[in-house]
Amino acid sequence: MKLKSNQSLWGVILILFGIGFAGNALDFWRFSIFFHGWWTLFIIVPCAVSIAQKGFEALPTAGLIIGILFLLSSWDILPRSAVFKLFFPIVLVLIGLSILFKDSAYKKHFKDTNTTYHSDSPEYNAIFGSQKITCNNEVFTGATLNSIFGGIDMDIRTAYLQEDIVVNCTTVFGGVDIRVPANVNVQVSGVPIFGGINNRIKNRNAGAPTIFVNATCLFGGIDIK
Fold it and tell me: Which of 11, 16, 20, 65 sits most deeply, having the most CB atoms within 10 A of its CB?
């Protein structure tokens, strides 16, 4: 079940924390026991929030699993060596799921907009390498950028945008730089885990085309400028 607002979800989380601290103050339980591995909450909570809001998706689901594994290890339920052995397979599964279900995920993210994802848009991959893409004085209809242990630099500053477009980005231990025209708007959808999405564009161009960036970011970064 999806919660309809951030306020409702964070309200529930704060109530649960309040109950926990109250029980600790009244000696109903030892709250400190449950906070071995408290740092894992910085992984678990954002992933759980994303799943509650958007449903199960590859990136937050994998992050939630990794966070729970680390928490179990902190509680001495699961050997830490087993967590590190499972980490890389989980990353591989994440990459596979992102590739398999990316089309349905894109449609889900942008179904409430007037934007159409062009299935014939070019796809660029940088795997253990780098790639520079430049679109000079051409019509740009969108793209898919996959950076896995690599980097992609896409420059569309002189491109022509005739409508709202979608740029899909997947970064796993990689980075993507997107340089956009000065007269466009940019909207970003995505939840980075051990990574970051930096959108430097200020949406002040009324009536101008919008670039919708759908980001999957794990141990990587996306910079839009």
Answer: 65
Hey, what are 181's tokens? 């025209």
pLDDT higher at 140 or 45: 140
| Nearest in space to 166 (alpha carbons), one of 149, 182, 137, 188 | 188
H-helix segments, the chain? 6-25, 41-54, 58-74, 80-100, 102-110
Q: What is the pLDDT of residue 3?
A: 44
Half-sphere exposure of residue 39: CA atoms within 13 angstroms, side-chain side:
3
Sign of CA dihedral 60, 190, 46, 200: positive
C-alpha separations of 154 from 88, 92, 175, 211 in Å: 29, 26, 11, 13
pTM of the prediction? 0.57
Whether residues 173 and 218 share a domain: the answer is yes
* Domain final residue pick, 78, 100, 122: 100
In a domain, 108, yes or no: no
Q: How many domains, the chain? A: 2
CA distances from 68 to 62, 156, 188 (A): 10, 41, 27
Show the tokens assigned to 74: 């902190």
Query: Looking at the structure, do residues 123 and 212 belong to the same domain, yes or no?
Result: yes
User: In this structure, is residue 20 part of a structural domain?
Assistant: yes
**pLDDT interval class at 132 (50, 70, 90):** very high
